[in-house]
Design goal:
The protein has 19 helices and no strands. By secondary structure, it is an all-alpha fold.
């Protein structure tokens, strides 16, 4: 494996997808322009960054260089799927499903497209035909059965999943949603409340209980759970949920600075942006948004969506807009 490819992989492992895409583009421009390898890598990085339109353009360029390249076909399919064009994506996935190196990726792509089209029977039939890893089959089978409102069967599959991988967060969240559909919110809330009190259980039980408290209209109780999780070293997801709960319970003076810290970590977080601006409007601190966004763009000049956000805030404030860097 080349030094350049190792560097590309390291950037992707650190979720620095924009950098990885730029690095791959440079490798292509400096290398053999008839070889689709680095164009395909660029497209993959863009897909991971959810820049699907740009990814499709690059992937199609790679495919034009070698129309039989399965990795380029996979990149085109993944980009089309991200753009919510499942019928087109399916044609590419079907073409590459026999390739042993990427069959599993093609299978996941096909199931994702069929789920988007709500073709649950086809999903179940395909899974019966394929040899897929058990943990992956569980997740897709639960989705398909839930789509058909076959709650008991889906819950049974979740039980098998958790028997194989106890306390797996993905399975526990899925099971919780299914039980709410079948039994209603109150009994599931009570059950998860009991589990959340057991200190030996992993944090996911408290996370689910906090989420159910919010759903039940009790943000104060949800907030207590998120505070416990934060004290025990919770992850970013829990901190986001805590910020949302603080806002919902009216504690704007605590929610706003927490949201600012989260946006420094991830300036692309649409939901935090929306909640942050809303909280500042409610507390009549819209000038704070402008000041913070101007600081945020100094830290993240490549995050072009911030320019548009600044422009909107200036329009609200009636501040004369300045020429932004990308227009110079």
């Amino acid at each position: 494996m080349s030094e350049e490819y190792n560097k590309y992989n390291e950037l992707c492992k650190k979720a620095r997808y924009a950098e990885a895409a730029r690095f791959a583009e440079l490798q292509y421009l400096e290398g053999n322009r008839n070889n689709p390898f680095w164009l395909t890598r660029q497209a993959v990085a863009l897909i991971r960054a959810r820049e699907y339109k740009a990814a499709l353009h690059v992937a199609e360029q790679a495919l034009s260089l070698k129309s039989s390249n399965p990795y380029s076909m996979l990149a085109v399919a993944d980009a089309l799927s991200g753009l919510k064009r499942p019928d087109e994506a399916l044609r590419y996935y079907e073409e590459i499903i026999g390739d042993p190196k990427i069959t599993f990726s093609a299978q996941k792509g096909i199931l994702s497209c069929l789920a988007a089209k709500k073709e649950w029977d086809k999903m179940l039939r395909r899974m019966g035909q394929w040899d897929m890893p058990k943990d992956s089959v569980f997740a897709w089978k639960v989705k398909a059965l839930a789509g058909q409102k076959r709650w008991d069967e889906a819950i049974e599959i979740c039980g098998q999943w958790l028997a194989l991988q106890p306390d797996l967060p993905q399975a526990l969240w899925a099971l919780t949603d299914l039980e709410i559909q079948r039994d209603g919110l109150e009994p599931v809330l009570a059950k998860m409340g009991r589990f959340a009190k057991i200190s030996s259980r992993p944090p996911v039980y408290k996370e689910i209980y906090a989420s159910l408290c919010k759903k039940a209209g009790n943000p104060e109780l949800a907030l207590k759970q998120y505070e416990k999780l934060t004290r025990t070293g919770s992850d970013i997801w829990n901190q986001r949920q805590q910020a949302f709960a603080l806002k919902k319970s009216g504690k704007l003076s605590e929610a706003i600075p927490m949201m600012e810290e989260l946006l420094k970590l991830d300036p692309k977080d649409y939901f935090i942006h929306t909640s942050y601006v809303s909280a500042c409007k409610k507390s009549r601190q819209i000038e704070r948004v402008l000041k913070f966004y101007e600081e945020l763009i100094e830290l993240n000049p490549e995050e072009t969506t911030l320019y548009g956000r600044i422009k909107k805030i200036k329009n609200i404030l009636g501040v004369e807009d300045e020429q932004f860097p990308e227009n110079r």
